[in-house]
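Sample entry was shown:
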Amino acid sequence: MATRSNPKQESKGSQFKLKLLSALAIAQEARNEEKKAPYPAGRFKRFFDTYKANSPHFMTANALTLIFALPILAIIIVISAIGVENLAYMLAGVTDRPYLMGNMGIGLSSGMSLNEARLYLLDVYRLMFLGIGIGIAVLSFGAAGHVYISTKLIWGESFVTKKDKKTGADVPRIATEFFRGVKTYWREMLIVFSAYGVFFAGGTNLILEFVHGVWSGGANVGQWFALFIGSIILLATTPIFFNLVPQVVSYHKTLTLAEKIKNACIYSLAFAIPTYIMIILAFGPFALLAIDTPLVTIIIGMLLIVFGLTYVFLIMVNYGDHNSENVAQMLYEHLKTDMSRQTRKDKKKTEVKQTSGPVKYKKKKK
């Protein structure tokens, strides 16, 4: 049975969205060159065309960014190599290690209850998410360089080049541009990534606290509250982080960090569904690592190492540029037009006042 949409509800939603967007901090983008014409084929086509045309540059940027992703990779590799179960017993100081036989329907071979062993495993995941939170802060340096390169490519701007000795063609110096981006944007990126790393580690550990309560025999009120707060933290901070990262580059020095955070919050509320769709598209492939087949895990892991960081940052930048182009810059152009009209009106009023005042004559002395 078809349902009719309520015009009043749609009107309220539109008014709320317009009210939010009217509170955006407006400024010109920090472009080095004149803005190019809008891409005719749409944003999704632009994403694939940009990557296809610049894949060697992106591979260089991805490889350089991986240097700063090494702490996160090291955590994942070490845990995978040692094994969650073995690492859990090592951290707990258990000498008589039981062997989990859950796949056979038996439980544990000896030594402790199944729930007790699962709680030891939970401690490994706590440690892993804390380590990833720290690794996110380190990744900020690589993100500064990669987001800068991605922004320039989405904007269609030129790069520093060098002459190829064989062909004589101008070749972009991607490594030079990458470290230029690191030098210029690392401070703000470090603040943004460090803050998100704290929220990520805190949110995931609050959720694990709830799991701890369930596995211990029943979660109490405090642990249910921890689940609620942890979920809210992750669901709220992730879209803000996603919308904020591209603005660090695209509004460098034209907006303060506080204004960029404000805009990221507004975009996350006004365009909540599109933002979450982009987050799922960006980070969804990483969930494939949970497939418990060694060969598949290795193949997916290698693909993500080679392309993963470029894939995530290019989606971020492309989506951020979409919001900037269709919302912030349109408002900026309207504001600039209104200001120029007001300036012309003020100028005319000043001229009228100067010419329409009373004429005073000086009396001649006899």
In short: The two ends are 101 Å apart (CA to CA). Residues 294-356 form the longest helix (63 residues). Residues 46-339 form one domain.
